[in-house]
Design a protein that fits this description.
Rossmann fold, about 950 residues
């Protein structure tokens, strides 16, 4: 009887699974993602975007008090007001409307544009504003929004005797005036709660004070002088002051947090290369004073304020920062024709940086600025940065009296072949500008929030040190501790990086430093013995504890408040939230955990509640809401209810031992309707280590470059993703040992795998490993390699065009793991290059190498393709014109095309389906764009 019941249950279950649909490419567009999650300051509202992968999305606003949703089609980029009384957001044009306009060849500047809406959360009224350029809401307590738009005709507001905006009419106007008005931009300042609103025409810039009490506005006058004016709108008195007006260019308006001080750039130059001065004013002086120009004492001679860096105040308003640079020189009109000029890039062995790096950074270098400081009370300038110390790290919300400056230039040349980016470091006294060099050729350096300590990690002895400049003393912090503070799993030919720093306790009393599992509380003065904040529970139970900083504005880790930690167990892959405090004598207290992956934590500013997410392969990372105790958890969102209708995937953690004695892990994905009595084709995908992603939810989506396990499992495939560990000098063989041992283990222990129908797929580093594997074994029936390096000897000295950097460093020290130069160990480069073993390949190969790939030169794919073609072996190469290393999200058609071709390729070789036309006959260039060959 029991057997009969079990049989019936099994039969019913299989019947239910069999009724579920396979996921097809036509289903991708409607699969939703939750984006831009947020919670209001008072914790009463949650907002998020629910966006399909293609098509029109919507903004959803959840009222936690009444448990109801507002759904606003086309809404995105929302911001709650600081008072939690309204929400402002952009509105996209409907995709269908935009598509029709493009098909009608409407000019770009006349295409439908974003608009904007404000929803009053108190009375539930919605107001829309067309032709949006941008909008801004203050950071702190205020109920105002500034709305920046293209020109619209104003109408009188009887209440305020000011003007509102309405869409412009087609009324005929003078030609010049029409052109001017077309370029005009207006600002509408609105209080959605009491409906006060103020219109400012011809606005160039605007900027709120943090507290929302003042709005700085730069506008142009409507008269023959075309003067610029600086206005200050006071949201409390509702008055507008004209602070400055002149026939000059004004830029970069900034206010301090209280809105009582302001600064801006001005220039009377009419040429392109303008020389700016800095103007400063406050409520007492009213009229701005010029405080910096090319002759200012304290700023380098011949230097001027730069328009290419923002001007900003410290949090306490006592310091004003701006970028300075050598005075721009006006270039007279060139008398030589372009055709008469030589055009070349001259590469010199004496250059600190390769020409491609210089060209990549050319615009940045032309606009490079050097930080200077104006001390408001002392009325004194201090030049902080210059070409000898270009980089400045400020502290304590820019209130600190010390800064850490660095200079990487002495080590730029070696960055072509070294993975480290060291620099020389100096401390700068912000009162005097005096510099003191403290470190040479170091990386992983930081200054403490009070400025007393410089913390750094030294690779030579794998130890953290604190330099106390007050005592001119260096204290070793971790030298006597018997745990490593570096990456214990590093398998690259370089010194491993440290795990990092969680933060500093108040007044720099302690610094919190991570090892692999635990958090250490260490006195930077070396007076108090180090102790584990996590009491050794991390290493004992193989749980990685990490501090979760919920308030991004906190300078110090608070002494008396509970701290929220995440904990990830390396054995079980369970993840959870834990609490502790700096003074606790107990191990971290578990608040919530499970066989899940956690993330997206955002705390409400004014209450002890937060939103977060938990996900598994089966469950999307929906928004969860709870107090910080993680009691009474509420699930807020449901992204993809249609998932229940489709045959999904399951995942199993697999463990095995390699021939060299290493224990490895991998993930085996199976169809939801898996039948152990059936033989399945299997795809093997890999990169380095992926098993910790066991609980990651994988949406069905068109490929950027790799297979989608959910999509393939739904269509009757198994997908195996093994971890790989590497031996320096032998990356290819290491991949072979790990992948082949995993595949062989599965074949020996799972009789549902069809050993004759196994395929490989990898991208980039995975693409290289794919190409290498098929030179060593005929086991695989088909392989797809995206952006593979096929010839390490030609790739070694090549360029990564997205950055302009030489590729040498990655072979000598990082991912490619050779650990030597080409001339030191040429045999290793050859041994690890698939190209030299092309005659061994019997597996049909599909390559993707795109002609704008900035990471792996596309000629690497060409070299392998032409070799296999010369050997008369089945090979195809996809080159998506103008595309980079991976297909970008916005290129939907390319991604769908790649997805279809990959599946057709694997279906043919692993499922015996007919070969599509493109595999049989290719696509001749003359038919490009007309035929796809599906």
């Amino acid at each position: 009887m029991k057997k009969t019941i079990l049989f019936v249950i099994l039969l019913v279950s299989l019947s239910a699974y069999s009724q579920k649909k396979e996921i097809s490419t036509s289903d991708f567009a409607n699969w939703n993602r939750i984006e831009n999650r947020m919670i209001s300051n008072d914790g009463s509202y949650i907002a998020y975007e629910l966006n399909p992968q293609k098509g029109d999305g919507k903004l959803i606003i959840r009222s936690l008090k009444i448990g109801m949703n507002d759904t606003l089609p086309l809404g995105y980029n929302a911001v709650f007001s600081p008072n939690s009384d309204f929400i402002a957001f952009k509105l996209k044009p409907a995709e269908d409307t935009l598509r029709k306009a493009k098909l009608a060849e409407v000019k770009k500047d006349l295409l439908p544009k974003d608009s904007m809406a404000v929803l009053n959360l108190k009375n539930h009224t919605l107001e829309k504003f067309p032709k949006l350029l941008s909008f801004s809401v203050p950071s702190e307590k205020a109920s105002w929004v500034a709305i920046y738009t293209e020109f619209q005709e104003p109408v009188k507001d009887s209440a305020s005797q000011d003007t509102l905006l309405k869409p412009a009419t087609n009324k005929k106007t003078n030609g010049n005036k029409k052109k001017t008005e077309k370029e005009r931009k207006d600002l509408l300042v609105v209080n959605p709660i009491n409906q006060q609103r103020f219109h400012f025409p011809r606005v160039e810039e605007y900027n709120w004070s943090k507290n929302g009490k003042s709005l700085g506005i730069i506008s142009k006058t409507d008269d023959s002088t075309k003067a610029f004016a600086l206005l200050r709108f006071d949201t409390q008195t509702l008055l507008t002051d004209t602070i400055y007006k002149d026939t000059c260019t004004l830029k970069s308006i900034t206010l301090d947090e209280t809105g009582t001080q302001w600064a801006f750039l001005s220039s009377k130059d009419t040429v392109k290369e303008k020389v700016f001065s800095l103007q400063y004013g406050n409520l007492k002086t009213q009229k701005p004073l010029q405080i910096a120009d090319t002759l200012t004492s304290g700023i380098h001679k011949g230097w001027a304020p730069s328009e290419f860096d923002p001007v900003y105040f410290s949090q306490d308003g006592t310091k004003l920062f701006l970028g300075t640079a050598p005075k721009p020189i006006h270039k007279p009109k060139d008398a030589v024709l372009e055709e008469d000029k030589p055009k070349l890039d001259l590469w010199s062995w004496t250059d600190n940086e390769l020409q491609p790096v210089q060209l990549k950074n050319l615009d940045k270098e032309k606009k490079r600025t050097f930080l200077a400081l104006y001390r408001v009370i002392e009325k004194k300038w201090v030049q902080l940065a210059d070409s000898g110390l270009p980089n400045i790290q400020l502290i304590n919300q820019n209130n600190g009296e010390w800064a850490l400056a660095s200079n990487p230039k002495p080590y730029q040349r070696q960055s072509s072949w070294e993975d480290r980016r060291p620099a020389d470091y100096s401390l700068i006294d912000l009162k005097t500008g005096i510099r003191k060099e403290v470190l040479k050729a170091q990386s992983h350096v930081m200054i403490s929030p009070t400025g007393r300590f410089v913390l750094y990690y030294q690779f030579e002895d794998s130890c953290y040190y604190a330099y106390d400049h007050k005592l001119n003393k260096t204290i070793p912090l971790t030298k006597e501790l018997d745990v490593p503070f570096y990456d214990e799993l590093n398998d690259m030919p370089t010194e491993p990086d440290p795990y990092g720093v969680a933060g500093w306790a108040e007044d720099d009393a302690f610094v919190l430093i991570y090892d692999r599992f635990d958090i250490w509380k260490i006195d930077p003065k070396g007076m108090v013995l180090p102790e584990q904040l996590t009491k050794g529970e991390g290493r004992k139970h193989k749980t990685r504890y990490r501090y979760l900083k919920l308030d991004k504005e906190l300078v110090f880790i608070p002494n008396k408040k509970d701290l929220l930690l995440t904990g990830f167990n390396e054995d079980t892959y369970r993840e959870g939230y834990y609490s502790t405090s700096l003074s606790s004598r107990l191990p971290p207290k578990e608040l919530f955990s499970g066989d899940i992956q956690l993330g997206h934590e955002i705390k409400a500013k004014e209450t002890s509640c937060l939103i977060w997410s938990q996900q598994t392969l089966q469950n999307y990372p929906e928004i969860q809401f709870s107090p910080l105790t993680f009691k009474n958890i509420q699930k807020i969102s449901t992204a993809n209810p249609q998932q229940d209708s489709f045959n999904w995937a399951t995942v199993e953690l697999v463990k095995w031992e390699t021939a060299t004695g290493d224990t490895l892990r991998g993930l085996l994905y199976k169809p939801e309707n898996f039948n152990p009595g059936q033989k399945y084709p299997m795809l093997v995908y890999y990169y380095e280590r992926n098993s910790e992603e066991i609980h990651r939810h994988i949406l069905p989506y068109p490929s950027h470059s790799i297979i989608n396990p959910t999509h393939y499992c739904s269509n009757g495939y198994l997908v195996f993703i093994p971890d790989i560990i590497y031996r320096n000098g032998y990356p290819g063989q290491s991949a072979y040992d790990a992948i082949m041992s995993g595949v062989n283990f599965l074949n020996e222990t799972r009789n549902y795998i069809d050993i004759q129908r196994i395929g490989l797929q990898g991208q980039s580093w995975g693409g290289y490993q794919t190409a290498f594997l098929i030179t060593r074994t005929p086991l695989f029936a088909a392989a797809m390699a995206g952006a593979p390096v096929s010839n390490m000897t030609s790739a070694y000295g090549g360029i990564r065009w997205e950055s302009g950097m030489s590729r040498m460093f990655q072979y000598e020290h990082t991912q490619s793991r050779i650990g030597a130069t080409l001339w030191e160990k040429p045999n290793l480069y050859i041994e690890n290059s698939p190209l030299f073993y092309a005659p061994n390949i019997t597996t049909p190969l599909l390559i993707m190498s795109n002609d704008n790939d900035g990471a792996v030169p596309w000629y690497q794919g060409i070299e392998l393709f032409t070799a296999l073609r010369r050997l008369d072996k089945p090979v195809w190469m996809l080159n998506y014109n103008g595309m980079g290393h991976n297909l970008e999200p916005k290129y939907w058609a390319n991604r769908m095309d790649l997805t279809l071709r990959m599946m057709q390729f694997f279906d043919h070789y692993l499922k015996n389906k007919p070969a599509p036309g493109w595999m049989k006959n290719g696509i001749p260039a003359i038919e490009k764009g007309d035929k796809l060959g599906y």
